[in-house]
Amino acid sequence: MIRDATQADAAAIAAIYNPFVKDSAVTFEVDEVPEEEIARRIHERRTGGLPFIVWEEDGQVAAYAYASPYGTREAFARTVELSTYLDPAFNGRGIGTRIYQDLIERCRELGMHLLVGRVALPNPASQSLHAKCGFELAGVLPQAGYKFGRFHDLAYYTRLLD
Ligand SMILES: CC(C)(COP(=O)(O)OP(=O)(O)OC[C@H]1O[C@@H](n2cnc3c(N)ncnc32)[C@H](O)[C@@H]1OP(=O)(O)O)[C@@H](O)C(=O)NCCC(=O)NCCS
Fold first, then answer.
1. Which domains does the chain have, with CATH numbers?
2. Prediction pTM value
3. How far is the CA of 75 from the centre of ligand 1 (A)?
4. Distance from the CA of 41 to the CA of which of 35, 48, 72, 135 falls in 20 to 30 A?
């Protein structure tokens, strides 16, 4: 089941996200994010009129996805950046694709025009996910992030909505 995230999901979302922060370069955040900060991020999206959704399975949050403003300048109003994270216990079952497609449709309904996905390389699962969801590789920022003692390239994937 896909539903809007609430403040009550913050702990489950932190539990999915923080292992990626701590052990991988898929996100350029370096310090684990407290539950209160996740709750703030959910609140910020929801009050800003942007989607923050979860995939719930047997009462457990298996994945989440959300849209963020791409930039604060007014002309970016119809451009958003998308993110999704899945509990690895649910890997490879199509959940990532389905929650991302749901997020894309919500962005379309909101009148968004350009979707951006930023992917630290290499990330085969996320690269496949973006290709599968109709994104094209717009470019790569070389060595954009420094984590675990080395630089990581950052790919920009884009999808235009009608
Ligand atoms: C990216 C992510 C959401 C994919 O979720 P998922 O439910 O496993 O993905 P799906 O089952 O829908 O598969 C999507 C595509 O990714 C591929 N894929 C999934 N896991 C993979 C892996 N570990 N290695 C290579 N490809 C993988 C699938 O084969 C599929 O592509 P295909 O249909 O062309 O074969 C999940 O792996 C994840 O949370 N990764 C860590 C966080 C992250 O990188 N998020 C994206 C940053 S915005």
1. 2-160 (3.40.630.30)
2. 0.97
3. 32
4. 135
